[in-house]
């Protein structure tokens, strides 16, 4: 059991939470969602005791253990990897140290040894005798190989530290598990393992994540942080989003009869309940949805940006031809002898086990970086818009947003007055005095939204997207995703967001040191094809 009662937290005049009352129950996984800055991570820190609220209390069941995914990669630098995981079960470590201290004490009494015996029993009940092997198994499942297990945390790669901290949080099956962005630094295979682990988890889980596929796979409920309150809704993220959008449309449709609207909502619930039987969280989610009433569905208060790419002209027959393209960095071969052509109607997801590979490829075809060898030929009808992974070079000058966007007005626009530019900024939720903000004080998410405004201004018929969901909240990610689905032109994309890749791409190209794997299929079909798994192993040798 986990309860938050009358939680209030304010920083000066800014109120994050006002009299929040919420209960979390065993067997459920709650996806904590909300706009950037709404207080999702702060709420988890309040529950864990890391932040003290101005008012209110957090209550957990007697004898229950809470575990919180730590974000400080340097906290355990002097510990071995295996010990860092074991420290996730603090009480077990205390019991182990207490009994070991007795055995090492030459002056220990008969009474001390009796105490040690009691500690041995308690240690065994907590799984202490298999703790090291359990921790090692957990690390291996998370992609931390055995050769790192006895290394000091400070000596292992940064991306592995995140995995060790995740193993620490999961270790020992805590009664309450709090996870803030647990998929950070994980590859697709490891995220899949974590989805299965949490889907089978029988205790309370709260998770903050911007990965919609992950939320859909693990969550039975959504905890929506909005307007200083938190409301819990039954179902996963997609159910919450689609039901709230349906309700909003119905509220606006004044001509529909009440009974027709009610029946449409009941049909919607029934459809999702049937689909839930196919999910990893099948039993609990299906039961929860079957108990759901129409009255529990509410429209979302969220604002969604309007991401609409409108090509000035259609693409011609020749779009992009690549011949024998190769690139190495610091002696490391990123990709070699890559050849392909793009056809009308294609939206291509690019992959590589080396994260530098796709970024360098996009930089090369955008004429920002030179290839080692090979040929690139663009069609004459193509108008490109590029969202790079790094955007800092675009924001060096302290211009306001209006001045900043004016720099990128294309030649075909003859009247770029203030209302025209405000329109593009407004679509990305910069309104009123926001346009007077200086670009050198923008947050990461605001900079990405500016870059998308710049892209829309170009009226492109081909867009290149390098990790488009970075720094964005779920509302912006959802809108960006839908904008790419509806875009009539060509999309070249790489993303950690599984749902983005699956719903947008109809062709997959994987860049390897030994050529390209190129398939006309969806992202999920690509991941599930066993023949491709075998081929990938060969291509990366």
| Radius of gyration, whole Å | 26 Å
The domain count comes to: 3
Instruction: Assign the structural class, choosing from mainly alpha, mainly beta, alpha/beta, alpha+beta, or little secondary structure.
Output: alpha/beta
Overall shape: it is globular
Low-confidence stretches: none
N- to C-terminal distance: 50 Å
- Number of helices, where a helix is a run of at least 4 consecutive DSSP H or I residues: 19
Number of strands: 18
Spatial ordering of strands, largest sheet: 5-6-7-3-8-9
Q: Regarding CATH, which class of the largest domain?
A: Alpha Beta
Strand content of the residues, in percent? 15-25%
CATH topology description of the largest domain: Rossmann fold
Average pLDDT, rounded to a whole number, is 89
Structure notes:
There is one protein chain. With 541 residues, the chain is an alpha/beta fold. 39% of the residues lie in helices and 21% in strands. The strands form four sheets. It has a six-stranded mixed β-sheet with strand order 5-6-7-3-8-9, with helices on both faces. It has a six-stranded mixed β-sheet with strand order 14-15-16-12-17-18, sandwiched between helices. Helix 3 (90-104) runs antiparallel to helix 4, helix 9 (237-252) runs antiparallel to helix 10 (258-276) and helix 16 runs parallel beside helix 17. The model has no long low-confidence stretch (mean pLDDT 89).
For this entry, give a set of tags.
541 residues, alpha/beta, Rossmann fold, 3 domains, six-stranded mixed beta sheet, 19 helices, 39% helix, globular
């Amino acid at each position: 059991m986990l309860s938050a009662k009358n939680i209030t937290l304010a920083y000066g005049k800014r109120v994050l939470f006002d009299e929040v009352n919420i209960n979390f129950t065993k067997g459920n996984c709650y996806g904590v969602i909300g706009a950037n800055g709404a207080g999702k991570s702060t709420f988890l820190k309040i529950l864990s005791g890391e932040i003290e609220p101005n008012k209110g209390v957090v209550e957990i069941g007697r004898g229950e253990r809470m575990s919180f995914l730590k974000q400080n990669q340097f906290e355990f630098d002097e510990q071995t990897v295996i010990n860092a995981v074991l420290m996730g079960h603090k009480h077990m470590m205390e019991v182990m140290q207490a009994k070991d201290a007795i055995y090492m004490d030459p002056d220990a009494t008969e009474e001390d040894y009796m105490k040690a015996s009691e500690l041995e029993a308690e240690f065994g009940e907590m799984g202490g005798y298999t703790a090291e092997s359990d921790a090692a198994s957990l690390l291996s499942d998370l992609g931390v190989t055995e050769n790192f297990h006895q290394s000091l945390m400070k000596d292992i790669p940064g991306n592995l530290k995140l995995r060790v901290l995740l193993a620490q949080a999961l270790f020992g099956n805590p009664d309450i598990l709090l996870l803030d962005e647990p998929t950070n630094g994980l590859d697709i295979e490891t995220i899949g393992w974590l989805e299965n682990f949490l889907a089978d988890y029988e205790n309370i889980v709260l998770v903050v994540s911007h990965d919609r596929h992950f939320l859909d796979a693990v969550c039975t409920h959504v905890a929506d942080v909005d307007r200083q309150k938190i409301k819990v809704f039954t179902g996963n993220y997609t159910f919450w989003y689609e039901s709230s959008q349906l309700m909003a449309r119905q509220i606006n449709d004044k001509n529909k009869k009440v009974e027709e609207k009610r029946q449409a909502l009941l049909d919607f619930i029934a459809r999702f309940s049937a689909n839930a039987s196919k999910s990893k969280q099948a039993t609990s989610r299906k039961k929860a949805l079957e108990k759901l009433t129409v009255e529990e569905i509410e429209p979302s208060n969220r604002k969604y940006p309007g991401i609409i790419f409108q090509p000035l002209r259609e693409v011609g027959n020749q779009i992009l031809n690549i011949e024998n393209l190769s690139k190495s960095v610091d002696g490391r071969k990123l990709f070699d002898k890559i050849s392909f052509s793009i056809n009308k109607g294609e939206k291509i997801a690019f992959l590589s086990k080396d994260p530098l590979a796709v970024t360098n490829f996009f930089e090369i075809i955008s004429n920002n970086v030179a290839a080692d060898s090979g040929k690139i030929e663009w069609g004459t009808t193509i108008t490109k818009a590029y969202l790079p992974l790094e955007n800092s070079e675009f924001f060096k000058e302290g211009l306001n947003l209006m001045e900043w966007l004016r720099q990128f007005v294309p030649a075909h626009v003859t009247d770029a007055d203030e209302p025209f530019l405000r329109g593009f900024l407004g679509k990305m939720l910069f309104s009123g005095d926001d346009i007077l903000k200086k670009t050198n004080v923008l947050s990461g998410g605001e900079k990405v939204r500016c870059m998308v405004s710049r892209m829309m201004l170009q009226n492109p018929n081909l867009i290149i997207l390098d990790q488009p969901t970075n720094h964005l909240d779920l509302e912006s990610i959802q809108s960006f995703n839908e904008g790419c689905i509806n875009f009539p032109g060509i999309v070249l994309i790489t993303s950690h967001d599984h749902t983005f890749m699956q719903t947008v791409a109809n062709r997959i190209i994987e860049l390897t040191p030994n050529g390209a794997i190129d398939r006309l299929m969806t992202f999920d079909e690509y991941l599930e094809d066993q023949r491709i798994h075998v081929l990938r192993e060969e291509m990366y040798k």
